[in-house]
Design a protein that fits this description.
It contains 7 helices and no strands. It is an all-alpha fold. The longest helix is centred in the N-terminal third of the chain and has 16 residues.
């Protein structure tokens, strides 16, 4: 059997946070809760509510059904402008060498 709905949601939230550069503290602020509550939800010690799902989906600009479908669909649905930009490896290496000199 595949992932449970709860696991799928936790991995989708984690993937979205990774792709956008968001932190648990940032998600906590969006939800109006303490960061420890986000940590408990992400670890499975507490459950995400449907209202949380609506708020998170709205924060990322995706449909709640895309969030609930799992990490691949959630990230594929993410508007391009919400993705953090990471320099290409070659550009990062060049910048790092320039900083050392």
């Amino acid at each position: 059997m595949g992932m449970s709905s709860a696991e799928r949601l936790r991995t989708a939230v984690a993937a979205l946070m990774h792709v956008t550069g968001d932190t648990q503290a940032g998600i906590a602020e969006v939800l109006g809760v303490d960061p420890t509550q986000v940590s408990r939800r992400q670890s499975g010690a507490a459950a995400w509510s449907l209202d949380d799902c609506d708020t998170i989906a709205g924060h990322y600009g995706i449909d709640v059904l895309d969030l609930l479908a799992g990490p691949t669909r959630a990230c594929d649905s993410l508007p391009a402008g919400r993705r953090r930009t990471v320099p290409r490896r070659r550009d990062a290496d060049t910048a790092a060498k320039g900083a050392v000199r």
